[in-house]
Amino acid sequence: MASQPTLLLRLVFLLSVASLVSHRATAQVGSYEPIPDLSDPYIQLIANFAVAQHNCRQTGEALVYVRVESGQKQVVAGINYRLIVVATDAGVKEYEAVVYKQGAVLTLASFRPAVKI
């Protein structure tokens, strides 16, 4: 049987490893991750929601949803969906939409022209 100092060292080592693993998992919470399937009907619903909400907020614009160009999601107290949405009005443009989902409620957090990088 191992002596008490050896058991204590093992315990300290295991607690250190557990703390490190816990810290790494926490560091990834809140980071944006790519959405693998942009054609998913739920992602399409969120994108349509963003365009419709934008049209309600902005007088004089009647954007028509075309497609999702790219997207990421972030798990927070709910889920943030950051989508690059293609929409048309007088011409085809890309917009960055951020939609927050908490429970069954969707909220348009922002909607602005996408910045080309």
TrEMBL record:
Domain Cystatin stretches: 27-114
Keywords: Protease inhibitor, Signal, Thiol protease inhibitor
Coiled coil ranges: none
InterPro entries: Cystatin_dom, Cystatin_sf
Gene Ontology terms, MF aspect: cysteine-type endopeptidase inhibitor activity
Protein family per UniProt: Belongs to the cystatin family. Phytocystatin subfamily.
Annotated protein name in UniProt: Cystatin domain-containing protein
Protein species of origin: Colocasia esculenta
